[in-house]
TrEMBL record:
Homodimer. It comes from Methanofollis liminatans DSM 4140. Gene3D superfamilies: Alanine racemase, Lyase, Ornithine Decarboxylase, Chain A, domain 1. Substrate binds at residues 285, 320, 324, 352, 380. One of its GO terms (biological process) is lysine biosynthetic process via diaminopimelate. HAMAP family: LysA. It catalyses: meso-2,6-diaminopimelate + H(+) = L-lysine + CO2. Its EC number is 4.1.1.20. It holds the Pfam family Orn_Arg_deC_N. This is Diaminopimelate decarboxylase. Specifically catalyzes the decarboxylation of meso-diaminopimelate (meso-DAP) to L-lysine. NCBIfam families: lysA (TIGR01048).
Length: 427
C-alpha cells in the first residue's frame, strides 16, 4: 500500500517514521493515517457512483470507533451504519447527519429504540417483535420511524464462519419468504414508514460474486414489496468487501471490481421495478483496515520449541489472530528492509497460549527494544480491545500530512479502577 514505505531502513506510515513515533509516544501504540482513510473512502464511493450517482457510503462504525476517524469520514460525506446507542452518539458527535445514519442490530433495547426515534435516524429492524416495539415507542414519542427490514438472504459466503452473517442459520435478519408479510405489517403500522431494505452477508469476503448474488436477492425483494405499496427510498446491500491481509497472495477484489459485479444486477433490478431508490453500502474494513499499524515493543526473545519474540501487546489490543486465526503482516520497523535470518513467532504478554500475534514468520532477528509493526490493524483492532489481564489500553496517534498527534490517550493504571466501587461491607 502506498501510504507505507521504507526510508533509511525504517518503516514509515504516511511519511512518518514508525521507530520515531514509537520512541515519542511509547509502545504499544496504534498509528492511523487519516489521509489513507479519506483516500479509501473517495475511491470506494467513486467506484460505485460511477455506475449510479445516488450511492451513499455508510461507514460501519464498529470497525473503528475513534471520534477522529469518524470525523474524518464525516468530512468526506460519509454516513454510518451504527450498531448501538454508543455508535449512534459517536456518529452524531462526529458531525454526521441523522439522515445518513442507519441504526442496525438484532437485539435493540427499549432505550436504543427510543434514542433512534428521538434522533430521527432510520432503523434496520430485525424481527416482527422489534417492529411492534418500535411502533409503540414511536407512538409514545408522537413520531413516525422510517425503517428497513434486515433480510436474511440465506447465502453461503467464503469467509470465517464467525463473520458470515447472511447464512440461513445466522441470528440476523428475516427470512426472504417472510419478508413481504413483514412489510405489509409495517405499512399498516401507524407510526412506522417502511422506506428501505437492508442485508449484510458477512465480512472479509475476497470474491465479488456473493455480493452480486445478494444484490439479486435484494432487487427481488424490492420488486415484491414495491408491488404491495412500499415506496423504497434506499436499498442497503451491507459491507463485507475484504482486504489483502496477505499482501502478496490474497486475491482481493478492488472496489471497481466489486462495483462492476454488483451494479449491473442492482441497476437492472431497479429498472425492471420502475423505481429509483438510493444504493446504500456499509463498508467498514475496506475504509479503515489498512490505515493503521499497531506498533509493539520487543521485551525479550526466547529460543524454545519455536523462537518466541515476546512483545508488549497481544490479544488485549488486537484480538483478530486469536479469535479468527487471522493473518496480519508483521515488520521489524527499525530494520524494515533487512534480510530475514530465521523464523519467529510474535507472542503477546497475555497469560494464554493462544496469545500469538503472528506465527512462524521470516524476519530479520528481532531483539529487545526493537519496534515491530503489525500491519492492517485499523479495522476491528482497537475497536475490539480489552483490559484483560488488567492492562490499560494503549494510545492511538493520528498522522495526516506532516502532522502527528494523539487521538486517544493511553489509559493509565488509575483508569483500571476508575469505574469500580468498593462497598464498605466488602472489606
Ligand atoms: N454492516 C453490518 C450490518 C455488519 O454487521 C458489518 C460487520 C458491516 C456492515 C461491515 O463489514 P466489513 O465491511 O467491515 O466487512 N470482527 C470481525 C469482523 C466482524 C464484522 C461484523 N459486521 C473481524 O475482525 O474480522
Amino acid at each position: 500500500p502506498s501510504h507505507l514505505g521504507i526510508k533509511n531502513g525504517r518503516l514509515h506510515i504516511g511519511g512518518h517514521d514508525c521507530t520515531a513515533l514509537a520512541a515519542a509516544y511509547g509502545t504499544p501504540l496504534y498509528v492511523t493515517d487519516l489521509d489513507r482513510i479519506a483516500g479509501n473512502f473517495r475511491r470506494f464511493r467513486a467506484a460505485l457512483a460511477a455506475h449510479y450517482p445516488e450511492t451513499q457510503v455508510l461507514f460501519a462504525a464498529k470497525a473503528n470507533g475513534n471520534l477522529t476517524v469518524i470525523r474524518t469520514l464525516a468530512a468526506e460525506g460519509a454516513g454510518a451504519d451504527v450498531f448501538s446507542s454508543g455508535e449512534l452518539e459517536l456518529a452524531l458527535r462526529a458531525g454526521m447527519k441523522p439522515e445518513r445514519l442507519l441504526f442496525n442490530g438484532s437485539s435493540k433495547s427499549p432505550a436504543d429504540l427510543a434514542l433512534a426515534v428521538e434522533t430521527g435516524v432510520r432503523l434496520s429492524v430485525d424481527s416482527i417483535e422489534e417492529l411492534r416495539q418500535l411502533n409503540a415507542v414511536a407512538a409514545e414519542a408522537g413520531r413516525t420511524a422510517a425503517i428497513a427490514f434486515r433480510v436474511n438472504p440465506a447465502l453461503e459466503v467464503p469467509t470465517h464462519p464467525k463473520i458470515a452473517t447472511g447464512l440461513k442459520t445466522s441470528k440476523f435478519g428475516i427470512p426472504a419468504e417472510e419478508i413481504v408479510a413483514a412489510y405489509a405489517e409495517a405499512l399498516a403500522a401507524e407510526h412506522i414508514e417502511p422506506v428501505g431494505i437492508h442485508c449484510h452477508i458477512g465480512s472479509q469476503i475476497l470474491e465479488v460474486e456473493p455480493f452480486a448474488r445478494a444484490a439479486g436477492v435484494m432487487v427481488r425483494v424490492a420488486r415484491e414489496i414495491t408491488d404491495i405499496g412500499v415506496n423504497l427510498e434506499f436499498i442497503d446491500i451491507g459491507g463485507g468487501l475484504g482486504i489483502p491481509y496477505h499482501h502478496d497472495t490474497d486475491p482481493a477484489p478492488t472496489p471497481e471490481e466489486y462495483a462492476a459485479a454488483v451494479m449491473p444486477v442492482f441497476l437492472q433490478g431497479i429498472r425492471e421495478c420502475g423505481i429509483d431508490p438510493a444504493l446504500w453500502v456499509e463498508p467498514g474494513r475496506w475504509l479503515v483496515g489498512d490505515s493503521s499499524v499497531l506498533l509493539v515493543g520487543v521485551n525479550s526473545v526466547k529460543r524454545a520449541h519455536r523462537t518466541f519474540v515476546n512483545v508488549d501487546a497481544g490479544f488485549n489490543l488486537l484480538v483478530r489472530p486469536a479469535m479468527y486465526d487471522s493473518y496480519h503482516e508483521v515488520v521489524v520497523a527499525d530494520r524494515a528492509d533487512a534480510a530475514a535470518d530465521g523464523t519467529y513467532t510474535v507472542a503477546g504478554p497475555i497469560c494464554e497460549t493462544g496469545d500469538l500475534l503472528a506465527q512462524d514468520r521470516e524476519l530479520p532477528a528481532p531483539k529487545a527494544g526493537d519496534t515491530i509493526a503489525v500491519l492492517d490493524a485499523g479495522a476491528y483492532g482497537f475497536a475490539m480491545s480489552s483490559q484483560y489481564n488488567s492492562r490499560p489500553r494503549c494510545a492511538e496517534v493520528a498522522v495526516r500530512g506532516g502532522k502527528h498527534a494523539i487521538m486517544r490517550r493511553a489509559e493509565r493504571l488509575d483508569d483500571l479502577t476508575a469505574t469500580m466501587e468498593t462497598p464498605d461491607w466488602t472489606a
